[in-house]
């Protein structure tokens, strides 16, 4: 039976192949250390849970909520931006609550994209950045992910040679999966370019609070004039260990926020009101919960870099995010990221995310998520060390897989 048009536009979900191997191995009794999906294992801070439990007792909160977010929540997000970035937002016209940043991106794509519109998107990047626009009928033109001078020549060529002229540019710093961090000077160049060429900027800032080295990551909206062209998406999933709560935000340009709010008004009634009230409580807090989450990921990062290095896999320490973007060890590079990831599940009981799942330019890397505790990370390193030491097994696998190709 022929697939539906929009489904045909989506490539195979490569992560599913690793997920099937994980499930099969676990069913056979294997203890798989899962560093694949970026699914935080830390509990949501107790005060946020307590606020949810308190509010849910009021039956008035059980009714339909507001698709753009309750007023108190939008004010709290505006307050966060004022404290953290020095950015003033109008909570009525420049803030929309979303069901996580992923839904925000997907519905923004639906709101602004006409069939054939060209979207400039980093490669590798988080899948929704490209797929949201593909499902909306857009065309993706891949860009560099490095936030430096190499970013801009391809951008100039894209504007010069794309027909029609690009509609929007997606940026994501700190980056998932590469963990690159952008500077405010880089954002200034982005905004100047976007204003000159009348291009929308869509910034994913989901990892703004998970940083380890240097100054806190900036917001693109700190650039004067950024709100003329830019919208930024944030998420509470990682910052407050609230992934299952599905709470995020889009903020910035009033026209774009209005378009997103209108689309959402047809599609959902927003998150459950007690969740929105608890999220408001979190955003209005003193920041200690954020500091604790950041500290835990920092320790895990250091343990991972040290123990994996001793195991024979040198991983560059990420400056931010809850991920490491690790180059495949040289003896295994010919496999590519998917086959290498499958091999780790089968031979080392360790799961990682294949880089090709984030775009073809990610195929020489895998993403390692810091979603297991320090003991489990060290155990993963011991498993890897045993696997790497069995050189004959590794060589046999590479030869067999390459022959199969």
TrEMBL record:
User: Required co-factor?
Assistant: pyridoxal 5'-phosphate
User: What are the record keywords, sorted?
Assistant: Aminotransferase, Transferase
Source organism superkingdom: Bacteria
Q: Give the Aminotransferase class I/classII large domain ranges.
A: 31-382
Gene Ontology MF terms: pyridoxal phosphate binding; transaminase activity
Q: Entry's SUPFAM superfamilies?
A: PLP-dependent transferases (SSF53383)
Signal peptide from the UniProt entry: none
Q: What is its EC number?
A: 2.6.1.-
Family named by the database record: Belongs to the class-I pyridoxal-phosphate-dependent aminotransferase family.
The name of this protein is: Aminotransferase
Q: Which organism is it from?
A: Martelella lutilitoris
